[in-house]
Design brief:
This protein is 16% helix and 40% strand. It is built from 3 helices and 14 strands. The protein has helices at 2-17, 102-105, 120-129, and strands spanning 29-30, 34-36, 48-52, 58-60, 63-76, 82-92, 98-100, 106-109, 115-116, 138-140, 144-155, 162-166, 178-184, 189-191. Strands 1, 4, 5, 6, 11 and 14 form a 6-stranded mixed β-sheet that branches. A 6-stranded mixed β-sheet has the order 2-3-13-12-8-9. A two-stranded antiparallel sheet has the order 7-10. A hairpin with a 5-residue loop joins β8 (106-109) and β9. The longest helix is centred in the first third of the chain and has 16 residues, at 2-17. The protein is globular.
Length: 193
Amino acid sequence: MKKYKLIPVLFAAVLAAVPFTGCSSDTESSSVSVSMAPNNRQEGLADTEIKAGISENAEANETSFKLNSVIDSGMTDESGNKYIYIDAVIGNSTDKEYDLNILNNFYLLLPDDSELHFDVRTQLYGQKNIENYIINPFTVPANGELAGVFGGFVIAPDIEEFTVCFFPTQDNIRDKANVIKVDVTSENIVKLN
């Protein structure tokens, strides 16, 4: 009898491992390179990567993304890990506003290929201490843009190079066919005074 109780658990584990992907009929455009990602990519679900540089506009799925800089707030946790935030502009070229959130639409790809996701402690700090901080979740206006400081993430003090990754999902949170990636180095990290 115990064998049969294990089957639903194993089935659920297999289903959880299957990535949820969406389709997009929109074409991507960017002034930078576009490449197809293999289906077994460890860091994400996207089929198409759009690479951009700092302060460079990248577009996919009628959404633009520009990373201005990464902000080191100066705040650390009890282990010395840094609170960092994303200073960015998200544009919406559709006639409909939509909501995004930092947990679903952003992640950091670290040099060892591990992912780093939003940490709620950084939102509490950001709301009180960072000018232009955007509270999560946030609305991107129709035919407009949202500019400000998003996030953030808790990162080890010795990591100064990583990739900021953004899924332009619009209002379909499962549409992760595209990912915009911006490589960040120590020169792109701004310390708050």
